[in-house]
Amino acid sequence: MKTTLFIGCVESSYVLLEAMLEKGYKVDGIITMESSAINSDFKSLVPLAEKYGIDYICTKNVNDEETVGFAKSKSPDVIYCFGWSRLIGKELLSLPKYGVVGFHPAALPCNKGRHPLIWALVLGLKKTASTFFIMDEGADTGDIISQREVIIDETDDAQDLYNKVLDVAKEQVLTFTKEFAEDRVKPVKQDPNAGNTWRKRGRMDGQIDWRMSGHAIYNLVRGLTHPYVGAHFMNGDQEVKVWKCEYELTDEYANLEPGKVLRVNSQTDFVIKAYDGIVHILDSDAVSLKEGDYL
């Protein structure tokens, strides 16, 4: 076995580390956080470290002197960094013999960058991928060691896709961990001129504009639902989160303006006119609406 250090602080980090430990793979040190105000899917790795008796350190800055010193003390052959929002510095990148392995749930070299699962759903993509690569100083630009396609169904929401990708990723991690142990990993370089990079999303990217198509609104809602922050619309000064909806293309209300409230079943269940049909909100924050209101 190679000496392995594991870095992470989100749900996917926990799931992948747990899969390794349950299979009997040895992890020599863990770098994690105790809490985070940044990651909506934050999950500390401390419980796994304590359960399996693994030395660990909690940090806010993986590149600070104390954390790098901890990493050096383990003399790692390889570092796994899954689910850490900050870039890893030169000193850590150059430390392990086999490099630092990163994880990006997209089909690199396409779709590098931020919020890959959210963008995939919001843009209505039919497939994505689970990709592991040797990290360099760029963002998601390193040599690929494992990539597997993940199909996106029309009914998948953020949690569904998250689970699909993690199921595939667990198999990949177990496979290439064995390959590292046997010196059989063969990294493949990415074409530096290929692909695109997704930007960081902001609050306004999650706001429903009822002039959008019903399908676009549906994709926005399913892309931002749990475990993420939720899409939203404005009712006056009230921001209303939407967690689930369905849409219907219809000409029945073609003469009505987008944003008109067509039916109210409850404070969390109502129907709104969109550009090309109707959107049925099935789960939202409570909001007081009446038929004929405009949003």
UniProtKB/TrEMBL annotation:
Q: Tell me the keywords, alphabetical order.
A: Transferase
| Annotated Formyl transferase N-terminal domain residues | 59-172
The UniProt entry's GO CC annotations, sorted and at most eight, read: cytosol
* Xref: SUPFAM superfamilies: FMT C-terminal domain-like, Formyltransferase
Source organism superkingdom: Bacteria
Question: Formyl transferase C-terminal domain spans which residues?
Answer: 205-282
Asked whether the UniProt record includes Translocase among its keywords, one would answer no
Q: Does the keyword Manganese apply?
A: no
Among the GO molecular function terms of this UniProt record, one is:
methionyl-tRNA formyltransferase activity
This chain's protein is named Methionyl-tRNA formyltransferase
Q: What is the protein's species of origin?
A: Pseudobutyrivibrio xylanivorans DSM 14809
